[in-house]
Structures are given as C-alpha cells and as structure tokens.
Backbone:
C-alpha cells in the first residue's frame, strides 16, 4: 500500500455529528439504518480517512497521553450496558453481551407457550431464542417497539445477544444508551419493587436511576422459558 505521508488532509462532512446520532437526529437515513455506523456514508468516510496521513504531532500527543497515569479510580473497573424497557432503565453486566442487531421478527416455536418466549430469530445466519425481558420481569411496555421519540430524543430499538449459562438469547429492548463504567461502591440498594429480586443494586446515571440486573437471577429466569 503506498504511503500517504505527503497526501493532503481530507475535510469530511461529518454529518453524523450534525444530523446523525451525535447531532439532532434529523437525518432521513436513520429510519433505514438505525445508527450512523450502519450507513454507507459513514463507511465511505472511514475508508477515506484510513489512507490519510496523521497530522503533525499526533504521534507525540498519543505517546504522551498513554504515558500519563489514568485519572479514573482504580476500582472503577466494572462496566454495564444501559438500556430501556418501556419506562424502566436497566443495565446488563457488559461481560454478558455477545453483540447487537437490528430488530427481527421472531418465528414461533410449536408447542412452546411460555409468554416470555417470542420464538426464534435469525441473526447473521444463526438462530437464537428470542425472549421478552419485559414480560419476564413484569415490565409494562408503554413505549412502542419502533423507531420514534421519547420527549425530544429519537430512539431506536435494538436486539441484544446475551450469553447466560449454556445459551445465548436475543433480547429485544426499546433503547440502548451505551456502556457505563462504575465502581462497586457506586451501587445503591435496590428499592422494594417487583424488580428487586433480579437486581444487584441501582446506579445513579445523570438524572436516571438504573437497575443493574444480577447475572444468576437473570440466568435462572431466562432458562425457565426453554424448559
């Protein structure tokens, strides 16, 4: 591959920061792709940047940045994926997540009547049991499972692939906020609600109270639908 040391820097139209998921979310392509990272415009921009030379001083800046001692507290080493089901904000331990995909229509399984088991979904050529976590946890899904808005935010439902025990499940969720790092000392006691038996505790995130799901309880709950 020819070196791009002498090539001029390309000025890109970073539409994802203006009208995409990092902007006002008014881009008409979002309805089709769900996220800018699935869009061909974003992919073409990435391909263009890969062949460009680094600006002067960037290597030195990176070296200095990586040489500094991180300011994050040593015990803030745990991470969880924050998501929404209806009006409930929950979090899954990040280690359970296998991947994510666009929502898919599940195919019913004959002679399986568990309300939480929606059927089987095909994700990238593999079949996964599709389980309604909202039904399993007794959450009233007031928000529709389609692209739309919550207040002034544009939302996009996702299908999360989660590994628990011997199985990988596909879990439809109404919105994914992203990964959140936390320390064990950040966990607050879960309030007495129907969700309490399934929670490790509660994390305060901005103005949200996010229930962190407990892995053992979640594994037992989802395994029930396959019996």
Residues:
């Amino acid at each position: 591959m020819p070196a791009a040391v002498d090539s001029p820097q390309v000025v890109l139209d970073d539409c994802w920061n203006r009208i995409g998921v990092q902007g006002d979310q008014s881009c008409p392509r979002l309805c089709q792709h769900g996220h800018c990272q699935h869009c061909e415009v974003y992919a073409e921009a990435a391909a263009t940047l890969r062949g460009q030379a680094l600006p002067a001083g960037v290597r030195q800046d990176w070296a200095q940045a990586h040489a500094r001692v991180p300011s994050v507290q040593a015990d803030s080493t745990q991470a969880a994926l924050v998501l929404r089901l209806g009006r409930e904000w929950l979090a899954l331990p990040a280690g359970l997540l296998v991947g994510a995909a666009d929502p898919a229509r599940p195919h019913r399984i004959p002679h399986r009547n568990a309300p939480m088991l929606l059927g089987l979904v095909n994700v990238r050529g593999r079949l996964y049991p599709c389980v309604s976590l909202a039904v399993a946890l007794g959450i009233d899904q007031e928000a529709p499972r389609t692209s739309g808005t919550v207040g002034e935010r544009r939302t996009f439902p996702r299908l999360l692939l989660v590994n628990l025990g011997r199985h990988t499940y596909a879990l439809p969720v109404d919105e994914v906020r992203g990964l959140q790092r936390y320390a064990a000392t950040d966990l607050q006691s879960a309030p007495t609600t129907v969700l309490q038996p399934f929670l490790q505790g509660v994390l305060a995130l901005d103005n949200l109270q996010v229930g962190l799901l407990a892995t053992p309880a979640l594994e037992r709950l989802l395994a029930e639908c396959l019996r």
About this structure: The first helix runs from residue 15 to 18. The mean pLDDT is 83. The chain has six helices and twelve strands. The longest strand covers residues 78-85.
